[in-house]
Amino acid sequence: MILTTSEESRLLDQRAMTEYGLPESVLMENAGASVVQLMKEKISWEDARVVIVCGSGNNGGDGFVTARYALSEGADVAVLVMGDASHMGENSLLYKNIAAKMGIPVISVAGADDAKEYLAGADIIVDALIGTGLKHHVKGSTAELITAMNDSEAVIVSVDVPSGMFSDSGCAAGAVVNADYTVALGSVKRGHVLYPGNGYAGTVLYSTIGIPNGAREHFPVKLVEEKDIYGFLPVRSFAAHKGTNGFIGIFAGSEGMAGAGLLTAQGLSLIHISE
User: Fold this and answer.
1) Whole-angstrom distance, CA of residue 2 vs CA of residue 222
2) CA 167 to CA 182: how far, in whole Å?
3) 88-105 burial code (b ≥16 CB/10 A, e <16)
4) What is the pLDDT of residues 70-129, one digit of tens each?
């Protein structure tokens, strides 16, 4: 599984579209559908009061699609839109209009004051406000809206990344959504696994959104999971003792920076003594 920066995430989408002919609208449709489908393992959409907070970028487009699929699962859905609708891309605007035609309330908000009455009554908040394209610190009315989302007692599900988190580093851009769950789309982002982003993201679920594996080739950073190394680990005999399993080697530190290695050795010595 690759771990991407924001620029690599854009490149991955471009490869899917140019090399495989997948339209952006299909990727956006798959993204919104994945949020609802994957979260069925964790929450119940049926009869839930769901508020989806959308921005004017493609992350908001994913949110509009999510609204449709949540409605089909029996949720009571409302969409709050913050930002200039004239800045929306063609596909985001398409899915916004489809949601409205399906009878889903699509409400423009200028900030937290407009949104609080909806957020206060929500069981689930879907955060589709800001995606991986974040470049500046979040402040003003956007920061206040994020704070209002965090103050809610609802379960918060972030679409791709928690709004207000830099996806490359996991650092907060001022105000940041504290998500219970994040559905990573297309790739897991480096900020999902780095501190403090792994805290903001909560439990991370992952969807390929239909991007072929071939498009993921030649990205430099991979996520090593338990399943990747399990086959390399020896099976320890139940009759084993400290003299039958070799020795521990420590590779740590550099010239003038040997402290980490020494502390590790001391810690292992204490374990030996305690045994």
Assistant:
1) 4
2) 12
3) beebbbbbbeebeeeebe
4) 999 999 999 999 998 888 999 999 999 999 999 999 999 999 999 999 999 999 999 999
Query: In 9-18, which positions are buried (b, 16+ CB within 10 angstroms) versus exposed (e)?
Result: beebbebbbe
Contact call for residues 3 and 223 (beta carbons, < 8 A):
yes
For residues 99 and 70, the answer to whether their CB atoms sit within 8 Å is no
pTM: 0.86
Query: Dihedrals φ, ψ of 203, to 5°?
Result: -80, 125
- Rounded to whole angstroms, what are the CA distances from 243 to 239, 247, 248, 264, 273? 11, 9, 12, 20, 15
User: What are 188-241's pLDDT values in tens digits?
Assistant: 999 999 999 999 999 999 999 999 999 999 999 998 888 888 888 778 888 888
AA identity, residue 158:
S
C-alpha 93/C-alpha 269 separation (Å) is 63
Write out pLDDT tens, residues 15-40. Answer: 999 999 999 999 999 999 999 999 99
| DSSP single-letter state for residue 174 | B
